[in-house]
Design a protein that fits this description.
The protein is α/β, with parallel strands linked by helices and about 270 residues long. The chain has helices at about 35-45, 55-70, 85-100, 125-150, 165, 175-195, 220-225, 240-250; strands spanning about 20-25, 45-50, 75-80, 105-110, 155-160, 200-205, 260-265. Strands 3-2-1-4-5-6-7 form a seven-stranded parallel β-sheet, sandwiched between helices. Helix 1 crosses helix 8 (about 240-250), helix 3 runs parallel beside helix 4 and helix 4 packs parallel to helix 6 (about 175-195).
Length: about 270
């Protein structure tokens, strides 16, 4: 019996994603969870495909240079402009990834938008925008990746949801945001159940109060008040969320699928 957490014939390696091709969605901002995940994955040997709606040649160069500065060498990276609201865009992006690297091994979807407003103030347009990006977009990019994963009968999906989906409304998001992220949890579990028999895993992370631009709308007093309710008494760092993504993307989590991982400093212990 092989008691190693790694596949038969492989030995422990501190670089957990050596030669793995990892598609990360939502990595254009250097303050984002997607970027932090890309940087950490590159440090662990991954080849990167970075998708973002606002990706340009200039942003791609900035992201690549920043990763190179942090890990000490230029990463193997492909940056693609992609609107995940479009199924065709998602298919094209995955095709580019496979054309460039020969395969894909992992999808991490960090893309999302948030808006905080009361239920009765949410317009049809606001609801549609949130749902199109957060839920439909997640569905689209997962479906595109799953087409490839099903062919090769292997692959890993990590989706980001939110504490808002668990508690019903969030600290920075309204009912439409919470509903969209609740859908991401259910979607991820459905993927895990449907595709487990052919070697595909899917898990979801529910972060809360991570130091990204999503906190920019809070005043200092509001942020201090929220931090006082967090057992760890601080907000989270993007690299700490990226660490959870790394675990779920690697062979260390080989027997985990359909799980919801909380990264919230203990604010929602349940």
């Amino acid at each position: 019996m092989n008691n190693s957490p790694f596949p038969e014939g492989k030995k422990y390696n501190q670089r957990l994603l050596d030669h793995k091709v990892c598609v990360i969605v939502g990595a254009a901002s250097l303050r984002s969870i997607g970027y932090a995940t890309a940087e950490l994955f590159a440090a662990h040997g991954a080849r990167l495909v970075l998708l973002d709606l606002v990706m340009t040649d200039q942003i791609a160069q900035e992201v690549t240079n920043s990763i190179a500065e942090q890990i000490g060498h230029t990463p193997d990276v492909l940056c693609v402009q992609c609107d995940i609201r479009s199924a065709a865009d998602c298919d094209k992006a995955i095709e580019k990834a496979v054309s460039s690297f020969g395969t894909i091994d992992c999808l991490v979807n960090c893309a999302g938008i948030v808006k905080s407003e009361g239920m009765l103030s949410i317009t049809d347009d606001a609801y549609t925008t949130i749902m199109d990006v957060n839920l439909k977009g997640t569905f689209n990019i997962c479906k595109s990746a799953l087409k490839r994963f099903a062919e090769q009968q292997s692959g890993v999906i990590v989706n980001l949801a939110s504490l808002a989906a668990q508690r019903g409304g969030g600290l920075v998001g309204g009912a439409h945001y919470a509903a969209s992220k609740g859908g991401v949890i259910s979607l991820t579990r459905s993927i895990a159940r449907e595709f487990a028999s052919i070697g595909i895993r899917a898990n979801v992370i529910c972060p809360a109060m991570i130091e990204t631009s999503m906190l920019d709308g809070l005043s200092e007093d509001q942020l201090t008040a929220v931090i006082s309710t967090i057992p760890l008494k601080r907000v989270g760092k993007t690299v700490e969320l990226a660490g959870a993504c790394l675990f779920l993307a690697s062979d260390l989590s080989g027997f985990i699928t359909g799980a919801t991982i909380d990264v919230n400093g203990g604010i929602h212990i349940h």
